[in-house]
Amino acid sequence: MRKPFPLLMSGLLLAALALAACGQANAQEAIQTSVAQTVQAMAETVEPSPATRTPRPTATRAAASPSPAATMKGLATPLLGGAVTQSSGSAYSGCNSLEFVGDITIPDDVAIPPGTRFKKTWAVRNNGACIWDSSYSLLFYSGDQMEAPNAVPIVKEGTVPPGQMVLLSVEMIAPQELRSYTGFWRLQDPQGNIFGYGPDGDRSFYVQIRVANEYDFLQNLCSARWQNAEDLLYCPSQDNDPLGYFKLVQSPKIENSYVRDETALVTVPEHVTDGQISAHFNPIVVPEGGNLTTIVGCMYGMPLCKVNMRITYSIEGGAEETIGEWNEEYDGLTSDVNINLGQLGLVGKAVSFHFYAKSIGGPEDDQVFWLNPRITP
Fold it and tell me: Which residues contact 308 (CB under 8 A, 6 or more apart)?
């Protein structure tokens, strides 16, 4: 049995986030393994920033927590995850040589609404003998450019010595035509020499998207900014982290004892009284006829679960507006969420969606789910 959806704001119903494609559980496992390796490798060359908060006795980060690579200069958010394909390493020798480590944002064939601005990020390692600096560029090589610049410096300041990893990012805009797009990228040195990775340095790394009137939040978890009330959190997060964590669960068992044959985003607030966890997704252009849908509630076996769940939106960086709020507890009832975003006047606008889960007292058993969240026509 489900609770009726509460009327909120302008008397409209709310809805949330995007469904994972088939095999999402396996994809997320690969994401967690590959990106965790990337973070660990980067930690060997990045000096962490000092902590800025007073540790709480009930919420200190364990020694086995994710590496502090997310604090590296130039990163506004923790290291982001994506569908990572590990290379076997480059055997190409010489001054200019790179090893492709993986995709950090925008997994292959992810759906992005037309006109949406997005940032693609790859991780590569300087595998050659020369030092890279701002005179080295990330260069568009072939395929679909998607309004990206022809070239951008690989670093704004500093250098990338041999053996060190660096994140390469470029902003693009999803075209208007609904189809698949692929763009290929390489590096260029100050003398104009172009090189990629692989045994002969002739392989390009690429971005591949599918422009569609939909958005899958589960495929874009690590393109969001995750945080508790005070601190940024890493993506992928670590299970049972007292600072708060999140994960994808395939075929979850929920509070009414049903097993749903879908994928759920499970969020767990920071383990303190009234602890919180939130995800702040990058702006997307809301497609025509966009509906935001999900089901929310407590996970099975969490009898003390009592959490306030909330979704807000902001237009082009403006103030957040609440479009849905639910107080969920372990009563065998879940809440359906379904809203026509056009009724909120959001179609065609660049909108950021924000998801919050906050313990009501607690924090015992506060594990809640967002089932199959997505925006679809």
Answer: 325, 326, 327, 328, 356, 357, 358, 359, 360
Distance CA 126, CA 166 (A): 8
Structure confidence at residue 52 (pLDDT)? 29
pLDDT at 15: 26
Which stretch of 3-12, 94-103, 123-132 has the lowest confidence by average pLDDT?
Answer: 3-12
Is-cis flag, bond preceding 363, omega within 30? yes
- Which of 197, 212, 227 is the endpoint of a domain? 212
Tally of CA atoms within 13 A in the half-sphere of 315 that contains its CB: 10
pLDDT over 80 (residue 88) = no
pTM: 0.75
Q: Give 265's contacts (C-beta < 8 A, 6+ positions apart).
A: 17, 217, 218, 221, 246, 247, 248, 369, 370, 373
Q: In terms of residue numbers, what domain contains 272? A: 2-21+217-376
- C-alpha distance from residue 116 to each of 150, 173, 283 (Å): 19, 6, 7
Nearest CA among 344, 337, 341, 340 for reference residue 5? 337
Amino acid at 314: S
The pLDDT of residue 44: 38
Characterize 345-375 residue by residue with b for buried, 16 or more Cβ atoms within 10 angstroms of its Cβ, and e for exposed. ebbeebbbbbbbbbbbebbebbbbbbbbbbb
pLDDT top residue among 33 and 299: 299
Cα distance between residue 215 and residue 374, in whole Å: 6
In a domain, 362, yes or no: yes
Give me the residue label for tokens 């670590």: 238
Q: How far apart are CA 325 and CA 101, in angstroms?
A: 40
pLDDT tens digits, one per residue of 36-63 = 344 444 433 333 222 223 333 333 333 2
CB 220 within 8 A of CB 110: yes
Q: What percent of the chain has pLDDT over 70?
A: 75
Instruction: Give the domain-ending residue among 181, 197, 212.
Output: 212
Question: Which pLDDT value is given to residue 72?
Answer: 28
Q: Is the pLDDT of residue 16 over 90?
A: no
Both structure tokens of 329: 């507890």
Question: Same domain for 87 and 179?
Answer: yes
Task: Give CA–CA dist 250/253, Å, rounded.
Answer: 9
